[in-house]
Amino acid sequence: MECTQKMGASEEISSFVLPLGATINMDGTAIYQGVCAIFIASCYGINLTFPQMLTIVLTATLASIGTAGVPGSGMMMLTMVLTSVGLPIEGIALVAGVDRIFDMGRTAVNITGDAACTMVINAIEKRKMERASKRNK
Questions:
Q1: Of 3, 57, 59, 91, which shows the fewest CB atoms inside 10 Å?
Q2: CA count, 13 A, side-chain hemisphere, 88
Q3: What whole-number distance in Å separates Cα of residue 136 and Cα of residue 133?
Q4: What does pTM read for this prediction?
C-alpha cells in the first residue's frame, strides 16, 4: 500500500484494491501451475490433448483464485490441477525441491499485478473526478 501511495494512488483506492487483489489475483500461481502440469506431463512422456490443455488452464486459474497466500499452498492446488487431467500426482516431487524459489517469483508477479491494477483504477478515478469537476463549472 505504501509503495502504490508513493506512486500517486489514493489511500482509499489502494486500501480497497490491494487486499482484494491479494485474495483473488494470483496470476503467478496460475501460470506456475500450468507450467508445472505441462512439465510433469513431459517428464512422464504424456502427450496432452487440446481439451486437456484447456482443462489445465481453467483449473489452474480457478485454483489460483482459491489458493491461500501462504508459502507452499500452490503445491496443494497443483494436485488438483494434475488430477483434473489424469496426470500422476507423484510428479509433484519433480518440482517440490525448487518450489520455494519459484514461490518468490510467483509472489513478485502477483504483487506487480496488484500494484498495476491499483494504479490503473486510480487513473480511471482521477479522470472521472476531472470530468465531474469540468461539468460542475
A1: 3
A2: 13
A3: 5
A4: 0.75
End-to-end distance of the chain based on CA atoms, in angstroms?
33
CA–CA dist 32, 63 (Å, integer): 11
> Do the beta carbons of residue 119 and residue 13 sit within 8 Å?
no
Our CA angle for 100, 55, 116, nearest 5°, is 55
pLDDT per residue over 16-36, tens digit each? 998 888 777 777 888 888 999
Cell of 64: 489460483
DSSP assigned state of 26: -
3-class DSSP state for residue 70? Answer: coil
